[in-house]
Backbone:
């Protein structure tokens, strides 16, 4: 899709629910994975001969192995509660982007083959065979779901479309119809250790450069160590933090926090990636394989704690899945929950008085905070439900004088996806990404109008990249998007007390 | 007498399909593993917390309330009305009736009105709201038609054409004790009962499974404690 055809939809004056426009996004689809990408993550290189049978069988296996799928495919009553909750529906008006309709693409096939009503009365219950046309619909619309779980908050039965789209993508992968972006990246993680495919020498080089920058900026010898055995903390962070604005400023922020608190820490060149795109494609073999590098690195380096940097789905994988996948963490220090989020660490140090923040350093910033979906709806921080909302805001308020939240129906567990999550952060989906950002941009525009907000803070690598791309389409400066630990890093008082 | 035997057979068959079908589904839900922790957060940290979350979903439809007030009003009217109606019907199954069943009788009458009003509201949305129209299958319409027909035939007997309820009770008690008693040959009653039989039969093979399903949704019934307690099940428990 050519970039010049992409334009941002207009803000809705009264946030009315848009009418449906059938087929509006029928042509949106990501590039197909090449055979090499497919094979690097253990899937057939191209479409298998008997793909219909393979797909139906795979679907049956997935359902009988997942209580979530088993229940979700039965319980939807088509009440319509979710129909206006997806940012992609709001932005595109395509009815297949209503969560229930997206689920139905899979549910119809499941019914046809695995339920009494679908086998004998397919028309009555809307059951469908897995035809080529249906396969194309799956490929298109399961790649228009960012797996943000907003619909699951509002569903009276807790049906989570993310689970359905993960399963849909896994079925497609199993017949050789994979998506290039996710599968190519995942292959790099297995081979090199990070999404960027940044090998060890390049990483070491980058980090040395960063140390020099830090010294130039602050006059302090702040280290960004890698592969240092015996460090207390292993930091697992998205590889975007090594590479691009505004991510890298966040990494420098973490370094300042560790430096000032006197905590020895290290990155790992072997496990140099917090992201785990296996979740997006529903592949538990890959999920486990990618996560296992982290356990191996932690053991190899002999660390006491594992801390995770700013990344949304990575925090979901770390918080919710690591203990299951690569636990138990009995080799780590019992005094700390494993894994910890960098925000939990910084917040803890702030509470203890181990670091001090000078709010005035951020007086040029008028800040709002974007809750990332996987942090908000699929994980936690701290020791109470909702800590994932409290802790980042507490840090921002401690680091800056000007903080304003966006409208309550667009934050916390109601937060809108940035529009680029779930493995959709690829250029050929730019039209979808821009449209999907609409509800978030509307909420942002309100606080910009009201409070002159000039800084949009996020704690997710995907959100940061997505906003940097999408903000200009909505006439906001791209550098509005800022890492939380950049704000912290700018405010931290260095030297003195440790 | 033929009619009595026919309805008796149908009721027994429907009861077997209903109970057997639901038991089978509950068994499947319970035994299917939940390999990962996926509660929709913020989620309760404790078991009583989870129980409270689910109680709120069942009694006041908490998520639906947050989601859409129209669906909530109609859905809640229907379900609460249905509950009152079902409680009122207990008098046909228990002899002597418990005192609170006697107490609830008049409320059951109002319940029937609430139920049918709610159902018509939900049905109207399937025609009037473009998004809901798009997602409705013929079966979604038929289900509402079935429930409304049950409600209306019941109300017809309650409010306009009284039937011999003593005889109906005799028939039902007879079914339960395997001692067949004659079923009154009232047309409205026969339609009402036939529709109820149909409802019992389709329950375990339709979206009505949302009733037992709600208790098994991992997004709602899991505790938020993955760091504190290692969770393994199904594939995640294997090697």
Residues:
């Amino acid at each position: 899709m050519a970039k010049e055809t992409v334009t941002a939809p207009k803000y809705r004056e009264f946030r009315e629910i848009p009418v449906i426009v059938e087929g509006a996004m029928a042509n949106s689809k990501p590039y197909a994975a090449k055979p090499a990408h497919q094979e690097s993550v253990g899937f057939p290189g191209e479409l298998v001969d008997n793909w219909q049978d393979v797909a139906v069988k795979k679907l049956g296996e997935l359902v009988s192995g997942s209580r979530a799928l088993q229940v979700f495919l039965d319980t939807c009553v088509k009440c319509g509660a979710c129909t206006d909750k997806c940012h992609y529906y709001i932005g595109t008006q395509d009815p297949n982007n209503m969560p229930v309709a997206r689920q139905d693409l899979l549910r119809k096939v499941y019914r046809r083959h695995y339920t009494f009503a679908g086998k004998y009365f397919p028309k009555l219950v809307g059951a469908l065979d897995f035809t080529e046309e249906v396969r194309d619909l799956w490929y298109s619309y399961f790649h228009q779901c960012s797996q943000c779980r907003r619909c699951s908050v509002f569903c009276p039965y807790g049906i989570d479309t993310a689970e359905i789209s993960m399963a849909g993508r896994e079925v497609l992968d199993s017949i050789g119809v994979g998506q290039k972006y996710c599968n190519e990246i995942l292959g790099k993680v297995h081979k090199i250790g990070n999404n960027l495919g940044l090998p060890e020498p390049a990483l070491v080089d980058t980090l040395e450069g960063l140390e020099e920058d830090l010294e130039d900026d602050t006059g302090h010898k702040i280290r960004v160590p890698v592969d240092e055995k015996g460090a207390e903390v292993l930091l697992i962070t998205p590889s975007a933090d090594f590479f691009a604005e505004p991510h890298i400023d966040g990494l420098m922020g973490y370094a300042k926090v560790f430096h000032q608190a006197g905590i020895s820490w290290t990155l790992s060149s072997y496990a140099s990636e917090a992201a785990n795109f296996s979740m997006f494609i529903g592949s538990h073999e890959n999920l486990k394989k990618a996560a296992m590098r982290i356990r191996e690195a932690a053991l190899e380096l002999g660390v006491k704690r594992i801390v995770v940097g700013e990344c949304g789905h990575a925090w979901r994988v770390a918080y919710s899945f690591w203990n299951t996948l690569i636990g138990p963490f009995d080799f780590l220090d019992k005094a700390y929950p494993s894994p910890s989020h960098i925000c939990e660490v910084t917040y803890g140090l702030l509470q203890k008085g181990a670091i001090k923040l000078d709010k005035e350093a951020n007086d040029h910033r008028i800040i709002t905070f974007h809750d990332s979906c996987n942090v908000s709806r699929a994980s936690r921080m701290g020791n109470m439900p909702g800590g994932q909302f409290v802790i980042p805001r507490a840090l921002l308020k401690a680091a800056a004088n000007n903080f304003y939240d966006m409208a309550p129906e667009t934050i916390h567990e109601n937060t809108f996806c940035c529009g680029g999550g779930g493995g959709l952060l690829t250029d050929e989906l730019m039209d979808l990404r821009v449209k999907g950002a609409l509800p978030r941009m509307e909420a942002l525009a309100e606080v910009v109008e009201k409070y002159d907000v000039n800084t949009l803070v996020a704690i997710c690598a995907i959100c940061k990249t997505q906003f940097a791309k999408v903000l200009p389409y909505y006439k906001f400066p791209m550098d509005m998007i800022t890492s939380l630990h950049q704000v912290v890093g700018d405010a931290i008082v260095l030297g003195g007390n440790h | 007498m033929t009619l009595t035997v026919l309805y008796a057979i149908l009721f027994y068959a429907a009861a077997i399909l209903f109970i057997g079908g639901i038991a089978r589904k509950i068994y499947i839900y319970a035994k299917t593993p939940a390999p990962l922790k996926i509660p929709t957060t913020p989620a309760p940290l404790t078991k009583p917390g989870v129980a409270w979350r689910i109680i709120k979903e069942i009694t006041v439809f908490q998520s639906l309330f947050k989601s859409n007030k129209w669906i909530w009003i109609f859905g809640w009217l229907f379900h609460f009305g249905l509950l009152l109606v079902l409680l009122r019907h207990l008098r046909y199954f228990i002899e002597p009736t418990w005192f609170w069943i006697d107490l609830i009788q008049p409320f059951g009458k109002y319940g029937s009105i609430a139920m049918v009003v709610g159902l018509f509201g939900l049905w109207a949305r399937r025609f009037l709201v473009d998004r809901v129209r798009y997602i409705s299958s013929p079966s979604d319409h038929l289900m509402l038609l079935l429930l409304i027909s049950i409600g209306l035939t019941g109300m017809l007997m309650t409010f306009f054409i009284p039937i011999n309820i003593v005889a109906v009770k005799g028939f039902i008690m007879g079914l339960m004790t395997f001692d067949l008693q004659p079923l009154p040959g009232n047309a409205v009653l026969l339609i009402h009962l036939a529709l109820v039989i149909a409802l019992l039969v389709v329950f375990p093979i339709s979206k009505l499974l949302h009733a037992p399903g709600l208790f098994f949704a991992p997004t709602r019934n899991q505790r938020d404690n993955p760091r504190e307690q290692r969770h393994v099940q199904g594939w995640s428990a294997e090697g």
